[in-house]
Amino acid sequence: MSEVSNRSRALACVTVTATVLGVCSAAEGFRPSDRITKNGLGTIQIGMTVSQIADRSGRRPDVTYFNDRSCGTAKLGSKVYGMFSHGRLIRIDVGTSRYRTRKGVHVRDTVKRVYARYGRRISARPHAYVPGGKYLRVTTRNRRIVFETNASGKVTSVVTGRIPEVDYVESCA
Predict the structure, then answer these.
(1) What is the DSSP annotation of 61-74?
(2) How far is Cα 173 from Cα 73, in angstroms, rounded to an integer?
(3) Whole-number average pLDDT of the chain
(4) Is the pTM of this model over 0.90?
């Protein structure tokens, strides 16, 4: 085989791989450039209906409700989960470092970095189950971003959503 032929084949492989990965990301509804805000993650926003999320992401969330339709959860993407009430998104839990807040904080960052980015806007409270862990909360009106941390001072998840649901420790409780 010629060198040109090998390069063409390699380029075709890269193009196909990039295309497939792009489709997977689109199907999930999120791109690596999407940001976690008090209003949601990327184009998926707190308050959206299941149908609106399906329209935006190309995938309908399969919500599992507990007891009644007042609270349920669904996987929205890889290590991204949503909490729903009566068919509307009320909270998003992000457990991956793939997405950042607008101030650049993500899972695996340090408590020190969270404080450096958000400063006096943070209210901290002890973690309910992790000795030495904390919930670092940034509140704006009826919305909040919560950085859950471990005893080593690392962010383990970022949660955004409505108050009071954003502060629920055990999913719908």
Answers:
(1) ---EESSSTT-EEE
(2) 12
(3) 86
(4) no
